[in-house]
Amino acid sequence: MPNAIAKHYTRAIMGLSALLALLCIVMATSLYRQQVEILELQQQTVRALHAADALGESMIDLSFLLKDQVADVSILHSRIEQNLQEIPRENLSDSQQQLLATLQTSFKEYQQRFDRLPSPQTSGYEAAVSKTVQFLTENTIPACRTFQDLTDDRLDAAGESHALILRELAWGVAAVGVVGSLAGVMLGYVVALGVRRTIRRLQVQLRDTAGMILETQSEIVVTTEGPEQDLDTQIRLLTHEVGAVVARLRQRELEVLRSEQLAALGQLAAGVAHEIRNPLTSIKLLVQGAHGPQATSRLTSEDLSIVEQEVLRMENSLQTFLDFARPPRLERRRVDLGSLVAQTFELLRGRAAKQRVELRFTSPGAPLCREVDPVQLRQVLLNLALNSLDVLPSGGWLQFDLWSDPQGAAELQLCDNGPGISPEISGKLFQPFQSNKETGLGLGLVISRRIVEEHGGTLEQVPRPQGGACFRLRLPPTPEKPEHVVDPVGG
Fold this sequence. Notes:
With about 500 residues, this protein is an alpha+beta fold. It has three domains: about 5-195, CATH 1.20.1330; about 200-325, no CATH class; about 335-475, 2-Layer Sandwich (Heat Shock Protein 90), CATH 3.30.565. About 65% of the residues lie in helices and about 10% in strands. The chain starts with a helix and ends in a 16-residue tail after the last strand.
């Protein structure tokens, strides 16, 4: 085809492409505005649904505790009030607003009934609690479930609107695609004429690649005398072989990954089972000794104390796994890190004295304050300190050093004079399920590092040539607030 005709077709196709581009811009702008409105509605509805789900769970927990005659449920009351406040009021329908007001009124009436409960020592206490639970389960909880269903229905409606917009977008894209395809066919025909002349003179060498995959080496030669189908056949063969090799490699990779996951799950299950089995064995022996035909005595107060300790031990093991699977949210406030270390020492002092371990602390002198979650950060310090006490059964020392570096970051270093960390576990300290303890879950350091990183800091092992283990915790500087009240305890 002469060059003039090719240029004519090219200019026509370019003009059509510009028109299609303008059409796409107009269509995209209109759909974008609709998408933004629906997206805002969906986000608000999802937030309301999550808050309503949390509210429903808290109310169900409250009803169970009241049925079990647990007197102190103030924490659940506070959580329910917080859940009610977290429900966004924007973009709620009139029926949702009315139902939310009904739900709040019902919960306030429940609180009034709860506040009027008689003393647990009186005879009418159980009946009064039963009526309060009945009001909660027959009025407040059904209202919460109705609000959840209504919010879920509104989310479905927003999803249907979104699907409608997507269908409109699909039809528009299809129309543009059809026109664009026709233009592409015309342009492709022009280009193909030139490519055809070039490809007939092309000599394609596949010797190296084919030799690594196929059993025989091949050389593909395409000339003006042979059809280009020969090239296509050889490339298809090579592609098929490469695809087969890649498929086998992927299958092996999946098998290795599955094996690693099963091994990790087995290790976790073994640790949790061991942690729970031992306390259950102790409880079983005490119960069997006090119950049955061969029973010689009843459970004493010491036996009940042992049972309580073993139950708490199981609870701590399960809580460790729950903290790893679902970390709690940070509740930051301004805390003096030195006071937080001192409070940690108070928790460790009894065990340290029993093991003849000296606790040392080098403070910076002046208060060193940061915006942190004191409960979670104290848990990090306890995890690190208890790991050190585990390897110091016969005495030693545990050193805390706190200072502020030139950049204003707070650094806290914890070192001991124990046997140190073995080389085989040193490189895997912060990986899940890695522990050299017989009953360890291998999650303490993983949870600790995650807590520190959520504070914007770092937690790392520090090499210590003179022996022992050493960890350094670094927290970034925070803006000073002179009028902000400092929590000296952090609890």
